[in-house]
């Protein structure tokens, strides 16, 4: 008896819109149920993507870190000369400075690019006639909005793979071709502190004059003619160091960002699953109540 | 004298260097290094060469900016060659 009475009620419940009296409440729950399901599905997809990206970044990170350690040796060794010679950057009034910002083309790695942009903006505010060379699309877009006048050159295509010394050399070559003389060249990059943190740091690439004016310069017995070579080579070395270290930072930052994203997605999935189940149960309970009420009512008659 | 090629505005490899016999003209020390390392890589044994040549790959593009406007996107390797060639011809 009950089951027979139940059937039409169920069918009516499925096509909720037909029943004008209860149209609002059940229709709303059915709709949200489907909405929740869709939402869950899309969050699951996003979680899959972020997890994969995290794994990719992890594998790239080990390679990037190895490259970074090697490049550090390059950079530090080449800078030993300047440390021993006690070279000081030429700064002060009327001195032209060039800032080389080492970011990369790819995003989805937290705030490392905006950290660089912020730092370079702060530097540019202190020295209005400073010129900027940007390596990488991300900082180019950010600095192109605020400091477009200062930008001299931009490079793209960095960050696909571990940077090579050939990259650094080509950039150094193009930078030396700028028809402007700079008294000081600063290279801004993200220094790798540990897997969680990094900080925007500057290494100095000295100009010929700065090298020639350093106090212990004579101890090295560098012939004037070779000085240009040393300067070019040390610029390439420092650039290589900065690029490799920035690359390692980017990979680790991306790994962290994707790790967080996956965790957040996991949280959302569990929350939505609970909500989904609760709503489903509420719908079922509501239907049962309707059926029973209908049955009791028809028995009385 | 070593490196006289650079300081005197000459754009040839150092005297006595084998690059000189190839008639390479090199306007910058980095270029000199790049050419030298390329030749070394290419003369390695086959298995090592493949590995080493990956380290020599460079696929950058660059753009010059004038007055806050981005110029044309150009291939860096080609542009460097052209610029170096111009530099060579003008300093000869």
UniProtKB/TrEMBL annotation, chain A:
CDD domains: F1-ATPase_gamma. It comes from the Eukaryota. It is found in: Mitochondrion inner membrane. Keywords: ATP synthesis, CF(1), Hydrogen ion transport, Ion transport, Membrane, Mitochondrion, Mitochondrion inner membrane, Transport. PROSITE patterns: ATPASE_GAMMA. Signal peptide: none annotated. It holds the Pfam family ATP-synt. InterPro entries: ATP_synth_F1_ATPase_gsu, ATP_synth_F1_gsu, ATP_synth_F1_gsu_CS. Belongs to the ATPase gamma chain family. PANTHER family: ATP SYNTHASE GAMMA CHAIN, ATP SYNTHASE SUBUNIT GAMMA, MITOCHONDRIAL. F-type ATPases have 2 components, CF(1) - the catalytic core - and CF(0) - the membrane proton channel. CF(1) and CF(0) have multiple subunits. This is ATP synthase subunit gamma. It comes from Trichodelitschia bisporula.
UniProtKB/TrEMBL annotation, chain B:
GO terms for cellular component: mitochondrial inner membrane; proton-transporting ATP synthase complex. InterPro entries: ATP_synth_F1_esu_mt, ATP_synth_F1_esu_sf_mt. Pfam families: ATP-synt_Eps. One of its GO terms (molecular function) is proton-transporting ATP synthase activity, rotational mechanism. GO terms for biological process: proton motive force-driven mitochondrial ATP synthesis. Belongs to the eukaryotic ATPase epsilon family. PANTHER family: ATP SYNTHASE EPSILON CHAIN, MITOCHONDRIAL, ATP SYNTHASE SUBUNIT EPSILON, MITOCHONDRIAL. This is Mitochondrial ATP synthase epsilon chain domain-containing protein. It comes from Trichodelitschia bisporula.
